[in-house]
Each structure stands twice: as C-alpha cells, then as structure tokens.
Amino acid sequence: MIRLHIFPASLRGTPNPSPFCIKLETVLRLASVPHEIVYATNPAKAPKGKLPFIELEGERIGDSALILERLRERLGIDLDRELSDSERAQSHMIQRMLDERLYWVLVHSRWIEEANWPVVQKGFFGGMPFPLSRIVSAVARRQVRAALHAQGTGRHSAEEIYELGAADLAALAALLGEREFFFANTPSVADAACFAYLVSILGPDLDSPLKEAALRHANLVRHMERMHALYAATRQRRQIALTLAA
Ligand SMILES: N[C@@H](CCC(=O)N[C@@H](CS)C(=O)NCC(=O)O)C(=O)O
C-alpha cells in the first residue's frame, strides 16, 4: 500500500495548504489507486525536507514530479497514458510553469500580502499555544521571505509578481479553451496540477490580484469546479468501499 505523507488541511476552502500535496492526492484518487494518507506537520523529517513524499515498497520518495515518475515506472500509474508525445510535452510545460513560477506568486499572496497574513498565520500556526505561535510564525515568515528572494520572485514589486502570475493564468486559460479537460475526455496530470493551483488560489478566503486574475477566466473557474467534484466523488467512493468492507 502506498503511504502518502501530506500536510493536514489547515486553510479553509482548500483540501490542503500545499498545491503539490493536492496534485498528488488528486492523481491517486483519479487513478483509483489505494493509498493511505499520513498527516505530517514537520517537513524537516521528509526525505527532502519538503512535503509531499510517499513510502513505496519500503522506499521514501520526495518531490511530486519524481513521485509521479516512480509511480508510472514501478506501478504503471499513468493518467497521461492516452496522451500523444506533443500533449505530454505540453503537460510537462504546464506542470513546470505552475510548480516553478505560479507557486511562488501564490506563496507571495499568502505569506507576504499583509491583509492575508493574519488568516494564513491563524490557519498554519493557530493550533500552537500563545506566544509560541507568534514566535514560530514570525520565524517561518522570515524564512519564506528569504526563500522568495533566493528564488527570485521576492526581488520583484508586488505589481510585477501579480503581473507574472496573471500571465501564467492567461496562458492556462488559452490552452484549455472551452474543453472540459486539457487533452482528453478524462482528466490527466495537467488537469490535476491545474486544479491544485486553482483551488489554492480561489478556495481560501484570501483576496489578492492573483485571485482577481483567476476569476477573470470563467473557463478556469469551471475547470476547478469540475475537478473539485471529481476529487470529492472519488473520496466518497473510497469511503463507501471502506464502509462496505467493514
Ligand atoms: N518540488 C517539490 C516542492 C514541494 C514543496 O515545496 N513543499 C512545500 C510546501 S508547498 C514544503 O514542504 N515546504 C516546507 C519547507 O520548505 O520547509 C514537489 O514537487 O513536491
């Protein structure tokens, strides 16, 4: 049995605070792969110091992209099986754009945007006793600010950061067009990845120019709702199966 280590849900409106965790869980659900969820709160204990990671055949594997590759190689789990080479290449680029660029815009909108910080602080650290919650959250925020600077996004003005995020969303919207899913009649990994980011941007009660940009694309909003329904339905199926087996 695959064990998927993810953060516990901590921001109302999104299944998980991490889009990487949402993407991976969505793929496993859509592929109907039996798996056990392990809620981890300390990413430092993960093989690469980040979540998600999985335990597969006794091995701990980190990084959502590498995990997807190992699942494909070793267990044949591949939502992209029916895609052409060109579609696979587009899917690859969508995922990299989301994980390497849009992710950081999302991080800025949550951790740096002053109006949103209290909500994020409460969601991520509210379970800790006071004043520890204040101290730990302040240290974490400083580390996130440093990470944003090191990655490069933190060197831009807020306007520039949101301009870059809006351009990514516009590219996604143009690629999707009026189709239900990016490449086929059923969702592929690109759909899971897109869902992970859109529900992260649109779901929580956090306003930002990033959310405004996403809301301007009705097709992306519909895609998020469609994927959310599939995500929720697969969970129900699992719960029903568990109940029947009990
Ligand atoms: N490239 C990794 C990125 C994972 C990642 O950045 N996870 C973040 C949460 S969204 C994390 O665990 N951060 C904890 C830390 O940096 O200490 C993947 O695709 O899984």
Briefly characterize the structure.
This protein is α+β, with helices and mostly antiparallel strands and 246 residues long. It has nine helices and four strands, in the order E-H-E-E-E-H-H-H-H-H-H-H-H.
Notable features of this structure?
alpha+beta, binds glutathione, four-stranded mixed β-sheet, 246 residues, 7% strand, Glutathione S-transferase Yfyf (Class Pi), Chain A, domain 2
3D structure, described in words:
Helix 3 (85-112) crosses helix 5 and helix 6 packs parallel to helix 8. With 246 residues, the protein is of the alpha+beta class. The chain has one domain: Glutathione S-transferase Yfyf (Class Pi), Chain A, domain 2, CATH 1.20.1050.130. The chain starts with a strand and ends with a helix. The protein has a four-stranded mixed beta sheet with strand order 2-1-3-4, covered by helices on one side. It is built from nine helices and four strands, in the order βαβββαααααααα. The protein has helices at 19-30, 64-75, 85-112, 117-125, 132-151, 158-176, 189-202, 209-215, 218-245, and strands at residues 2-6, 35-39, 53-56, 59-62.
